[in-house]
Structure formats: structure tokens, C-alpha cells
Design goal:
globular, Methylamine Dehydrogenase, Chain H, about 450 residues, mainly beta
């Protein structure tokens, strides 16, 4: 695949964007309730029986269970309060079908409660699940807790002095997942890092990120610190919460293609542009190739959510804005109230690209997209619609979440998707109720065949 990209990059001069829209039809909808919890392993530190102690003002510890009400970023209550008893199933940030097990999926859970400072008691997990599209339920078949017993992580972790050394949201922010023959590779936002795990979730290697020969870091990289002078800057090019969000594995298994979530900064500290970098990592050599491609964001989109191949050259990318909720229930401009969406969802799409066709600047060709705010539902398969306009068409379904971070091909006609519910800080389905983790099966044969 790498040779094909290089050859065609010189031969084509194509526009980076296309605006052909393909229809998506709901074929299944399954829910994992927001307050779903799992117990930590028996050998985990006892304090991990409770999570979410550090989410209050100043990240000071709060021990009283349920004493910190969940709120959205625009001030709407979500109905779930922290600290929580147990570890939240939480925010699905990556999905891949389980090889050889039809109907089962690997899911990577988010880092915990949104940032490094408040997630030191949130354990990092990979789940194996089976959604039942008929009943609308999701069976949890297995949970793998990430750990570093062989001390492969080169910096201090939250559980540094324990024997099992379970990893938490203080250590990494896993956002993408690729199962491989000897375990998993995950993409992290904090470093950003690539992390190799064995089948039991134990770290085998942590890889620094290089772009054009330079190590690039986010402000949450463990080597960075606040300078002694308030006028001194801290050098970084990756935005906070803007590291590796999607990560595709070439179908031949030879290369990883991690994708930065948001536009980078230049070395001078200015925004690089309204595009996203796709990097290339050679798995056999265990090193960056030095090559990168560019993905042009759609108007109104501010970030990507996931990235997965559907064949040797074509791949799907989630594009999204920072809004949530039905735009028909938008608050009057400038107002933030519990009965309306102050920043509703307007751009939520899956874009099909061809990595073998790039223009002179390295921008990949866009083939077309699906609009996740206008999914057809002629059979009424939606389990819930949430709060939306009274005159909303009954045969339409939307995925109006602030963070939609999982998409993968199922077969020649279907794709599967899931949302990150940012427990308990997102409420895009209902105005004042924390979002569930939702999985949807979409029938999109024309989209998957487009070239």
C-alpha cells in the first residue's frame, strides 16, 4: 500500500474535497446505559473501587459518593454525580470487529473524566462486546485492564509503586484501537504516543511521535512542565486533547496510520491550517517512515473522530464539530439554559477517502460522506430519539453527540458506529440526561461501493 500511495501522489492532481452525500439507513440500534459500571480486578489498589474523586474545583479530592453533580460544558445538568462506585464502562473511543467472531467487537474506553489531572482513579480498559440488534442490548463478554507490570512505560504512572501497575487516565488517553496478531496497538492523545499491548493488556512498547524528523508533543506530554517564569513558553505542536484520535491499520497489516484529532500548531505557534495530519508507522521495522498525508476538514468541522480502512486504498473518517443536540432546539443566541441546546450539533459525518489519490500538497481525495444527523429509519428501529423538535420526521434518526469516535466496516453493505458519552458531561440525546453509550448499525451499500 505504501508504494501505491507514493506513486499516485505524483500522478494525480485532484481536489481534496467532495460533497457527494450518500444515504444511510438504520439497521440496528443498541444501548449501554450511561451508569454501567465494572469492578476492578481483585489485585488492583483498593482505592480504585471508587472513581471520579478528582473532578471538582481545583481537582481536589472529594470522597463523598455522588456529591459532585455532572454538568455539560454549557451548564446543563446530566443527572449523574461523582464520585462513582466502580469503574465506568465509559466513552467508546474506538471499535474493531473481533477476527473470527462474527458479531463481536473490540472497544477501547476513553481515559476517564476528560483530562489527565482528574482521571488518576479511572482505569484504562478494552472491552469485547456483542450487540443484539433485535433486543437493543449489548453483552459485555470480556474486559481487559491495561497494565505495565514489566515497567515499559518510561515515565512515572499513577500506580507506580504497585505490583500489577494498572494504568489510569492519568497515564494515557487511549482513543483508537487496532488488534494485531500478538495483541493490540492503541493511539494515545496525551503524548501523543503509540502503545503496543499484549493480549492481556500489558504494555510492550511506548513510541514517541515523530513528524518530519521532529518529536512532536502535546501540553500533556509527561516531559513538559510549567516553566518557572510566567513569560516563558512551553514548546508543543499538538493541541491539548488533540493527539491521536483515529488510527487505521493497512489491510495487509504492514503499517499503522495514526491520525491527529485537530490541526497542529506550526513551530512558531500558529495554527497550521484547517487540515489533519495522517502519519505512517512501519510495524515490521517498529519506526516512523517519515511520510504524512493531509485530510481537509469539511466546513464547520473542527476535529476527526475515527479512521479505519475498508479496503487497500479507501478508508472512513468521522468528521465533527463541537456541538451536541438537535439544532431545532437551539437556545437563543448567547443564552445558556437547561431547556435548549446552546451549541447544537450541525456537522456529524462519515467521510470516505482514497489514500492512493493525493494532490500536489499531499491532501487525500474525498469521495463522499454520510450525514449522521439525517439517517433514514423507515422501519422504526431507533431505541430512543431523545429531545428533538415536535415536528421531526418519524422516519429520521440522528446521532447528535459531541464526540462520535468509532466507525468500522462490518460487511459489503454495513458499517458499525458508537459514541463517546464523556460520562457524565455530555447530554446530546436528551437535554438533561447523561448520554448512554450507543451502538448503531448502518446500511450504506452505495457509500461503501463509491470510488
Amino acid at each position: 500500500m505504501r508504494r501505491l500511495i507514493l506513486a499516485t501522489a505524483l500522478a494525480f492532481s485532484l481536489p481534496a474535497s467532495a460533497d457527494e452525500r450518500f444515504e444511510a439507513t438504520l439497521a440496528g440500534h443498541a444501548l449501554m446505559p450511561a451508569a454501567t459500571m465494572v469492578l476492578p480486578p481483585a489485585d488492583a489498589p483498593r482505592q480504585l473501587l471508587v472513581s471520579g474523586r478528582f473532578v471538582g474545583p481545583g481537582n481536589q479530592r472529594v470522597d463523598a459518593i455522588g456529591s459532585l453533580p455532572g454538568m455539560t460544558g454549557t451548564g446543563r445538568p446530566t443527572g449523574i454525580a461523582r464520585p462513582l462506585v466502580g469503574q465506568p464502562y465509559q466513552g467508546i473511543s474506538g471499535i474493531k470487529p473481533v477476527p473470527g467472531a462474527a458479531g463481536e467487537y473490540w472497544l477501547i474506553a476513553d481515559n476517564g473524566f476528560g483530562n489527565r489531572r482528574n482521571s488518576g482513579d479511572a482505569m484504562l480498559m478494552i472491552h469485547r462486546v456483542r450487540p443484539d440488534w433485535r433486543s437493543g442490548q449489548v453483552a459485555l463478554l470480556e474486559t481487559i485492564f491495561l497494565s505495565d507490570p514489566e515497567r515499559q512505560v518510561p515515565f512515572r504512572i499513577a500506580n507506580e509503586t504497585t505490583e500489577a501497575r494498572y494504568l489510569t487516565g492519568h497515564d494515557f488517553d487511549p482513543e483508537s484501537l487496532q488488534p494485531v496478531g500478538d495483541g493490540f496497538w492503541i493511539g494515545d492523545e496525551f503524548g501523543p504516543f503509540l502503545i503496543h499491548l499484549d493480549r492481556q493488556g500489558r504494555v510492550r512498547r511506548v513510541v514517541e511521535t515523530r513528524l518530519e524528523g521532529e518529536v512532536i508533543r502535546s501540553p500533556d506530554h509527561p516531559s513538559l512542565q510549567v516553566p518557572a517564569s510566567p513569560t516563558a513558553g512551553v514548546p508543543f505542536r499538538v493541541r491539548r486533547s488533540g493527539g491521536f484520535e483515529g488510527m487505521a491499520l493497512s489491510p495487509d497489516g504492514s503499517h499503522l496510520y495514526p491520525m491527529i484529532e485537530q490541526p497542529l500548531f506550526t513551530a512558531a505557534g500558529q495554527p497550521e491550517g484547517a487540515f489533519i495530519r495522517i502519519l505512517e508507522f512501519n510495524l515490521a521495522r517498529g519506526e516512523w517512515t517519515g511520510r504524512s498525508l493531509r485530510f481537509q476538514l469539511a466546513p464547520g468541522a473542527v476535529a476527526i473522530g475515527d479512521f479505519n480502512f475498508i479496503d487497500a486504498n479507501r478508508a472512513m473518517v468521522i468528521e465533527r464539530d463541537g456541538g451536541e443536540g438537535d439544532a431545532a432546539l437551539a437556545c437563543p443566541q448567547g443564552q445558556r439554559r437547561p431547556d435548549c441546546f446552546a451549541n447544537p450539533a450541525r456537522v456529524k459525518r462519515v467521510t470516505l477517502i482514497d489514500l492512493s489519490q493525493t494532490d500536489a500538497e499531499g491532501f487525500v481525495r474525498k469521495i463522499g460522506h454520510l450525514d449522521l444527523l439525517a439517517i433514514r429509519d423507515p422501519e422504526g428501529l431507533a431505541r430512543q430519539h431523545g429531545d428533538r423538535a415536535p415536528d421531526a420526521p418519524r422516519d429520521r434518526f440522528s446521532f447528535p453527540f459531541v464526540t462520535i469516535e468509532s466507525v468500522a466496516r462490518v460487511d459489503d453493505e454495513h458499517i458499525v458506529m458508537a459514541n463517546d458519552n464523556n460520562l457524565p458531561g455530555s447530554a446530546g440525546r436528551f437535554l438533561t440526561r447523561a448520554d448512554d453509550n450507543e451502538m448503531i448499525l448502518l446500511r450504506v451499500p452505495e457509500f461503501l461501493q463509491a470510488r
